[in-house]
Amino acid sequence: MKWLENNFKELPKNPIDVVKKQYIRAFILRLIWGILMPNKSRNLVYIRWLLHLVNFKEYRRLS
Question: Which branch of life, at top level (predicted)?
């Protein structure tokens, strides 16, 4: 997860939609990793949480 921290620290100015979605997914993944599913090795996230990041359009339809 250190890779996420290094590559998604700060959203660029005037990002396109694809970049915004990438940063949103990275942020949510960091939340899952750091709060919901902490792991002593700090490099694993349970797959059940990753599956929720697959398609944001599906969540928009459900809300």
Answer: Eukaryota
4-32 per-position pLDDT tens digit: 888 888 888 999 999 998 998 888 888 87
The three state secondary structure string of 1-63 is: CHHHHHHCCCCCCCCCHHHHHHHHHHHHHHHHHHHHCCCCCCCCCCHHHHHHHCCHHHHHHHC
Find tokens 């915004």 and name the residue: 20
Domain regions of the chain by residue span: 15-62
